[in-house]
């Protein structure tokens, strides 16, 4: 299962971002090109994993966007993007994002107390992005019905689990300078 995802991961090129071995993949980078069949495979799989009673899909710029778009079209449920730029609208929440290779700010708009949100993202690595996001959503008073990430590497999932936060992923990989290996597929 998840045959297209697995095959494409095994072919992913690796580049160095400082000491971080960064894999390049259609789901996490839009490079090489993202085939509709892969997007269809992963988003159908997500819909088989989640609790259905969410009223908003929440994705992080940039590579949460194609996932949220496909999920929204399959479910008829709207999506909001957590952006890397501010709009300075009333109620905008700013959070600091730190990954294994970058630091920046993210801005949440149009998420309100009582919203039931499905979070979707392409990759979890250190977990820094999701920790910051979950803290901000708790402050807003939104309920996260599921937290879904396609590709898991590193210790981010166990870091969140230690904080009592469940993250579901489709595949766990290891990345070395030689390439990607698949450690687990979560059917
Ligand atoms: O678990 P972490 O170490 O926090 O890493 C995961 C984050 O890294 C990537 O974001 P990036 O800022 O590279 O965004 P992109 O989608 O624009 O490539 C990815 O989309 C996650 O949001
Ligand atoms: O190695 C990576 N590749 C693509 N996106 C990512 N987001 C965190 N780590 C990675």
Question: How would you characterize the overall build of this protein?
Answer:
Belongs to the purine/pyrimidine phosphoribosyltransferase family. Archaeal HPRT subfamily. One of its GO terms (cellular component) is cytoplasm. This is Hypoxanthine/guanine phosphoribosyltransferase. The protein has a single domain (3-185), classed as Rossmann fold (3-Layer(aba) Sandwich), CATH 3.40.50.2020. The protein has six helices and ten strands; from the N terminus they run αββααβαββββαβαββ. It has helices at 3-10, 26-29, 36-49, 65-75, 128-140, 156-162; strands at 14-17, 20-23, 56-60, 79-82, 93-98, 103-108, 116-124, 143-152, 168-176, 179-185. Strands 4-3-7-8-9-10 form a six-stranded mixed β-sheet, sandwiched between helices. Strands 1-2 form a two-stranded antiparallel sheet. A two-stranded antiparallel sheet has the order 5-6. Helix 3 crosses helix 4 (65-75).
Structure ligands: 1-O-pyrophosphono-5-O-phosphono-alpha-D-ribofuranose, hypoxanthine
Task: Count up the domains.
Answer: 1
Number of strands: 10
**Relative helix content:** 25-40%
Terminal CA distance: 7 Å
Poorly predicted parts: none
Q: Mind telling me the CATH class? A: Alpha Beta
> How many strands, which pairing sense, and closed or not: the largest β-sheet?
6 strands, mixed
Task: Give the strand line-up of the largest sheet.
Answer: 4-3-7-8-9-10
The third-level CATH topology is Rossmann fold
Structural class: alpha/beta
The helix tally amounts to 6
Average residue pLDDT: 97
What is the N-to-C succession of helices and strands?
Answer: HEEHHEHEEEEHEHEE
Strand content: 25-35%
> What is the radius of gyration computed over CA atoms, rounded to a whole number of angstroms?
16 Å
Backbone shape: globular
Based on the structure given, which CATH architecture is correct? 3-Layer(aba) Sandwich
